[in-house]
Design goal:
mainly beta, 3-stranded mixed β-sheet, 3 helices
Length: about 550
């Protein structure tokens, strides 16, 4: 990695100005070679030196790999400040990545910002109510190459696949030479106000962001030898409002500072793959990954859940449509919304049922101090999002809600006899499943695999809102209590200061979600098939820390 930066700062009259120019270059290379042998005599292991690998009778083919990429950037910035009233910054950077074809390699990303400190103007009223006021405007563009492989624009030859009468052979990768940078352009307007001798501060920001040339693996005809191709597919907008309010509530011997922030953010897909209106995001693999749960839909959030909608439980056999009755559906089975009203339940009945991204979220901080004691609390909240509780058994035969679908045969006794042993289910499901008309409208009857026909695994465990839960929460994230010894004591032990403290992280959570953590998401990308999906991963641990801060 090489970085070269030139900067110049100066003043003229009431103007403070600076100029910065720079260049950066980085290259990453990874090489690997491996060789292996085993089945050594008497279980012995020889030296790790390569010249002794033939000591094992079983010698395997060597393994070699190589990958590399480079990134080069040129950047510059100019900053102007006139009398601390008018502040202007402008910058431009050019980034070039080896992951794109030569004619698409460089992206250009300008930005500019302006601030007006109105409180420094002569006409601004001088009073005890408003001490400082500043207006901010900014616009900028950023680029992303997330998800682009090191050799995406090249057609590479490799061994593998099953294209030669079911056997592996040479295969040529599908090049993506048309790929270019994903670009996000954002405009922001905001203001900052300090009031009552700076005891109260308010920050407000409104923004609009449009992302174009979205990077996404679009589906392609499988006859090409591949099912997806990394592409630039469409555009997305994000807009929102962010508020932050901080105050010094008490300033005497007993001090209390209180602050909070809240963000309202909406995103919407503006255009999609080659003009299409919707793309159903396929499942990432086996039934353990819950089936297809999301769709990219024009005019809707990018994290939209798209699945069957559960309306309740059939209470009588005569409520079941004839097509479903022929598939084994009876009273006690799930009633899904029949979107196309054809009397059957298929993928054509999937609908938009919500989103993983919340309507608003934020945090609260409170700090107290009295004499040598200090107490700080931090909480955060999120409202309006959904989480898929896949750990309950969606689209599979396992999970805490399987109700007879998950079992194994266990041998008992000396004669080798075997009995069926069902896997555990949750207490709520065991006590609340449907037992007859009117007994439950949310938990279906127990069934065995094969009772229902025409569905993977079972009709009752289809990917649906049966497993979709409210992800709203309030968490008391951190609580810290400390005590600082008075100076009269620290002087006697020859230290400048000594503070003892105890801290608790992830202390409490208030939520309706039945899982460990409503924030859990198997994937961090909103367009991914497993975004907002909880497979029962280990939750964030509750931790307690005891410590001291000692300064000499």
């Amino acid at each position: 990695m090489i970085d070269n930066v030139f900067s110049y700062n100066n003043e003229w009259n009431k103007l403070i100005y600076s100029v910065m120019l720079g260049h950066s270059f980085e290259k990453y290379t990874y090489e690997q070679f491996g060789a292996k042998s085993d089945n050594y005599a008497n279980g012995a292991y020889p030296s790790s030196s390569f010249d002794l690998i033939n000591a094992g009778p079983n010698i395997y083919a060597g393994d070699i790999s190589y990958t590399s990429y480079a990134l080069e950037s040129y950047f510059g910035r100019i900053a102007l400040n006139w009398d601390n009233k008018y502040i202007l910054n402008a910058s431009l950077r050019s980034d070039g990545s080896s992951r794109f074809a030569k004619n698409k390699r460089y992206g250009y990303f300008p930005s500019a910002s302006f601030a007006w400190r109105a409180s420094n103007e002569g006409f601004f009223p001088k009073n005890k109510y408003v001490n400082d006021a500043k207006l901010r405007l900014s616009w900028g563009m950023t680029g992303s190459m997330a998800g682009v492989s090191n050799y995406a624009p090249l057609s590479l030859i490799s061994a593998g696949g099953a294209s030669y009468n079911g056997s592996a052979g040479f295969q040529i990768s599908q090049d993506a030479r048309a790929l270019t940078w994903e670009k996000a352009s954002q405009f922001n307007i905001g203001f900052d106000i300090e009031m009552f001798q700076s005891r109260l501060t308010l920050n407000v920001d409104m923004f609009y962001q449009k992302t174009t040339d979205l990077l996404f693996k679009k589906p392609v005809n499988a006859s090409t030898g591949y099912t997806t191709l990394q592409s630039n597919i469409g555009s997305l907008e994000n807009k929102g409002l962010e508020l932050a309010l901080n105050g010094k509530i008490l300033t005497g011997k007993f001090k209390w500072d209180l602050g909070g922030n809240i963000s309202f953010v909406k995103n919407k897909l503006l255009s999609l793959i080659e003009g299409s209106e919707m793309y159903v995001v396929p499942s990432s693999g086996s039934n353990l990954l819950g089936g297809s749960m999301h769709a990219l839909i024009n005019g809707e959030p990018i994290s939209t859940f798209y699945m069957l909608k559960m309306e309740g439980i059939y209470q009588r056999d005569d409520e079941v449509p004839a097509k479903l009755y022929a598939k084994g559906v009876r009273a006690g089975d799930v009633r899904y919304f029949d979107y196309n009203e054809d009397g059957d339940i298929t993928d054509a009945d999937r609908v938009n049922v919500g989103k993983a991204i919340p309507d608003f979220y934020g945090g609260i901080t409170s700090n107290f101090s009295y004499k040598g004691f200090d107490l700080s609390l931090f909480g955060q909240f999120s409202v309006g999002g959904k989480v898929m509780a896949a750990w309950r058994g969606v689209n599979g035969s396992e999970g805490t809600d399987h109700l007879g679908l998950a079992l194994s045969n266990v041998k008992v006794g000396d004669r080798g006899e075997s009995v069926e042993q069902f896997f555990n289910i949750s207490k709520e499901v065991a006590n609340g499943y449907w037992r007859g008309e009117g007994t439950s409208n949310s938990i279906p009857r127990p069934v065995r695999i094969g009772v229902h026909t025409g569905y993977d695994y079972d009709y009752n465990v289809q990917t649906s809102t049966r497993y979709l839960e409210d992800a709203s929460y309030f968490k008391l994230k951190t609580v810290t209590l400390g005590y600082t010894l008075p100076e009269s004591i620290t002087k006697k032990i020859h230290v400048n200061s000594l503070r003892f403290y105890v801290s608790a992280d992830n202390l409490l959570a208030f939520t309706k979600y039945s899982g460990y953590d409503p924030e859990t998401s198997f994937s961090g990308s909103p367009g991914d098939s497993n975004y907002g999906v909880d497979f029962g991963l280990q939750p964030v641990l509750r931790t307690f820390i005891f410590g001291l801060n000692l300064n000499f």
